[in-house]
Amino acid sequence: MANTIELEQIKSLLPQWVEESRQLAVQGKVAAYIPELAKSPRDTLGIYIMDTAGGSVAAGDCSFSFTMQSISKVFTLIIALMEHGEAAVFSKVGMEPTGDNFNSMLKLELVAPSRPFNPLINAGAIAVTSLIGGDSPHERSSKILQFFRLLAGNDTLDYDLDVYQSESDTGHLNRSLAYYLKDKGILNDNVEDVLDIYFRHCAVKVTCSDLARMALVLALGGIDPSTGKSIIPRRYVQIAKVFMTTCGMYNASGEFAINVGLPAKSGVSGGILSIVPGRYGIGVVGPALNKKGNSVAGVNLLEKLSGEFEWSLF
Amino acid sequence: MANTIELEQIKSLLPQWVEESRQLAVQGKVAAYIPELAKSPRDTLGIYIMDTAGGSVAAGDCSFSFTMQSISKVFTLIIALMEHGEAAVFSKVGMEPTGDNFNSMLKLELVAPSRPFNPLINAGAIAVTSLIGGDSPHERSSKILQFFRLLAGNDTLDYDLDVYQSESDTGHLNRSLAYYLKDKGILNDNVEDVLDIYFRHCAVKVTCSDLARMALVLALGGIDPSTGKSIIPRRYVQIAKVFMTTCGMYNASGEFAINVGLPAKSGVSGGILSIVPGRYGIGVVGPALNKKGNSVAGVNLLEKLSGEFEWSLF
Amino acid sequence: MANTIELEQIKSLLPQWVEESRQLAVQGKVAAYIPELAKSPRDTLGIYIMDTAGGSVAAGDCSFSFTMQSISKVFTLIIALMEHGEAAVFSKVGMEPTGDNFNSMLKLELVAPSRPFNPLINAGAIAVTSLIGGDSPHERSSKILQFFRLLAGNDTLDYDLDVYQSESDTGHLNRSLAYYLKDKGILNDNVEDVLDIYFRHCAVKVTCSDLARMALVLALGGIDPSTGKSIIPRRYVQIAKVFMTTCGMYNASGEFAINVGLPAKSGVSGGILSIVPGRYGIGVVGPALNKKGNSVAGVNLLEKLSGEFEWSLF
Amino acid sequence: MANTIELEQIKSLLPQWVEESRQLAVQGKVAAYIPELAKSPRDTLGIYIMDTAGGSVAAGDCSFSFTMQSISKVFTLIIALMEHGEAAVFSKVGMEPTGDNFNSMLKLELVAPSRPFNPLINAGAIAVTSLIGGDSPHERSSKILQFFRLLAGNDTLDYDLDVYQSESDTGHLNRSLAYYLKDKGILNDNVEDVLDIYFRHCAVKVTCSDLARMALVLALGGIDPSTGKSIIPRRYVQIAKVFMTTCGMYNASGEFAINVGLPAKSGVSGGILSIVPGRYGIGVVGPALNKKGNSVAGVNLLEKLSGEFEWSLF
């Protein structure tokens, strides 16, 4: 009930806030490290919010589609946990924020054993992806895509093959990380197979409403809002929320926790998936990134919402 | 009301849980880097819980007194924020977890500018301490001690002068950090003055009930439970809770967030201050530390409590 | 003339010195990171010395054959210099010792641009190998092998295909380095092609006399002792000698310069190529390695020789 | 005899070469980290060469006086070796180049034990200085100054007290290094005492002819050219030459070895001491430094000399 009233308030405020936040996009840069990403228009900004009672509100460029990139790491972690349990997953990847760049190799060399510090940096996400089983790389990728479709409630979700190809062609730093992990016994798989699966799940194309729906499942503690059935064990949702809070926004996660205070995960495409536990699933996109790699306008918009409606967990 | 029932349950379960967790102390080691600390008995374990309705429960070695050590950093941060505001404080210290040891110099050299990553690592805490003003080192230390007394509701709180002296005599790594910060312009103060203030607030002697009372103020969003008055702005309590969650337990903070899920801060003396926001302030002590520097038995006990009563923020 | 007298002295002393140095082999370990290498007998020790007047002396296990490993890096550097000149080569690789392990990635990430610090660490040697041209990987490998045969005066020099295969199958850390360099634009080649060429030249099988003959060409400033013709420009021999002196013995190069004082390059197979400029070419093998990766007995034997006959450059 | 002819050639060429090299000074910057140093005129360039037969040649600004800075480290190492022998000295400091900046703390934290990598980086030089004994800091400093006077054949050599004071007031990074070493047990002394001695020997004021005379003693293998007596054991001269070659020019030592090929040590004041073993002692000064901290014009001038007269050791 209270939720419904708040949603009405959001509806009335959001269009203007989107326009205000959009002005900040000029401060950021669209990611250029994958050639395909560089084509996104800089001043795009869209947001979609779903509440647990079935309501929703959209504002800005909600028809804009983009690839999930690092946002997918939250859900591949969940798949790996559902397949293997905590002990197996955390034997391959740690639980700690790093303070380093998402593609850094420093701690792999400096801290023995060479286990990636957490599942949301690239090294950790590659290690987690390698745990997701199947008879072939194709089958393993399919399993991931099917799960993403289920979470988004959208059977048409698919890869952006141009981005996938672009990333596969130029992803040499990820190859370097993967071979390092292979050398250290963290990754037992064929490296190119794992990278293919990894590049594919990063290249799943979504809109803000897809992200909001995926977030809503987390906001509901793992319950599918369409069927009321649990599709993710609550414990794994909890683990995902911790990682989103401590390292979901690259090495600006601490700042985001202070200024927004919500579990969230950003991607280099400018997307952000965030949740207000028990209440909302949120999808945002704004391709212009700040120096830490997060959407300038998107972070600003979430800060306004969280501040106004006191959503912070803290 | 629900709180009261839960407190009764805790009362009945806690004594046995303390004995169970105490068994784990043999896995840990009492800190030896400050000679005075090494004298603590390894199998000590005490806990004190205060609820927001005025109830409380104690178990184990609650008369054991120990120094606050790093736990004091939460409150010197709050004093600095109250004196200077967010902008000034965060120009000297960052908001991000590091993944490095609490006394590491790596990021100071590797990441420009050489601003400590957060206020809970030693470099950051020293930078924060230097912001706390006063006409003399003595006056600055007094101000801190008075605030700690107010929070603990205990006018007799004072320094353990043996620990203070021991730390002052052997704290060369902290001297090294402080001179590094001085060189980089983060610290403008006289280095030995700042270190004296820093070593003093680390050496304030408390028991579990003192910690629980200090925690209770945070659990109440900054309200003094005796007077009902706000003694810390809610926003600064929020900031403190974020840092306690993302980097309060050294580089096991991520693991603690997953397994316990409460804002907490540990000290090398074996103390842990933790809060259940809106509900409880908790003080724990168990001097035997694990490899990451946290109380083995204390963490285990908090994990049982949080698991049983579903206290996790996540 | 003086040389001839000295060579006679060496002949009389060497057999006993070899036996004395051989005793030290128990302090070392045979390299295990390439499975094939682990098969070498630990107490093997051989040495072959050629003088510029055509004389020679051998002692110990001179029929033992082993792979060149890192020793080959000296000569691929020379080939690259002969093909492209100093400016081109040193745009891809630096001139400085690192103090890090031979396979470290730290400085690649920490020091911009990500140019390997020198041509004798793995990253640098891979970058140098990529500069050696040809119509196909096979042709590029052949060119290297032919040059090695010319230097050794031995047309039968060839790959140890078991070692090559073993290294190719397990060389994931080198793959990681190569993809890192590819990402940074240091390496423009196909990574697997370069690695194939690299693994092959590391796997060229030699005996001590082959190494001594290769060293003799360097000792003669680039002159082929058989024909009297210059086969390496003197300037490139000079550059090779500098790198052998400052970083030829991994991160024990400084210690070797102090205790032996000769340009030298060691390999993980236990081989060492060393020169007394203008006078001797020396090949040594002793598979038991110290912690820094150099032959325990081989280093000891060179130290005795250099000390007794005052060969140090310094 | 040959030496005499060469010296005549140098005399005729040097004035023009000095003017040519002086043009390069605009590419460099005078060191600013010590306020006093920043006052040096940028286009100063002087050189003084002494040969082992008693001849000498000077060109450029040879009356310009400057502080020895890091050049002094070569001679404090020699004093420590003469007092304690190799084993004691190398238990406190290593023998390896680092590739890091001269004031870096990285390897102290990353490589156990925290022994400075070599005696020519700041951490290592401070450790070496602490080994030089005496009843008081004053006496220890006097001993060093007396030795410098003996080497320079100049009884008036003294401290530049302005530079000493400036360095003492602002040398917080050296304080940080020293306290780090104190914490790790490398330095057992009182930190401020050691730093006082260190800052003093860095602040000894010389001209090019002083440096040339000091260098000449090394070129003679430790023989005092005035008395013909050995004042430094040959073995310690050898050790000094190795360090000058592998790490005398900061992290451009490898490049200098390739392009010049002489043992040398530079200082942040723009001085360079270099030797042609058995033949010349050389003192150079040019305060405009390149990015690696070496005199732009001075290095260029040495490169011309070494190239023309084939002085390279390699």
Structure report:
The structure is a homotetramer of 314-residue chains. With 314 residues, chain A is an alpha+beta fold. Chain A folds into 2 domains: 2-69 and 204-307, 3-Layer(aba) Sandwich (Beta-lactamase), CATH 3.40.710; 72-202, DD-peptidase/beta-lactamase superfamily (Beta-lactamase, 3-Layer(aba) Sandwich). Chain A has 12 helices and 10 strands. Chain A has helices at residues 2-22, 72-92, 106-110, 122-129, 137-152, 161-170, 172-183, 191-202, 208-219, 234-247, 253-259, 296-309; strands at 29-30, 46-51, 56-60, 66-67, 158-159, 204-206, 264-266, 271-276, 280-285, 288-289. A 5-stranded antiparallel beta sheet of chain A has the order 3-2-9-8-7. In chain A, a hairpin with a 3-residue loop joins strand 8 and strand 9. The first copy, chain A, is globular, with a radius of gyration of 18 Å. Chain A starts with a helix and ends in a 5-residue tail after the last helix. Chains in contact: A-B, A-C, B-D, C-D. At the A-B interface, helix 10 and helix 11 of A face helix 10 and helix 11 of B.
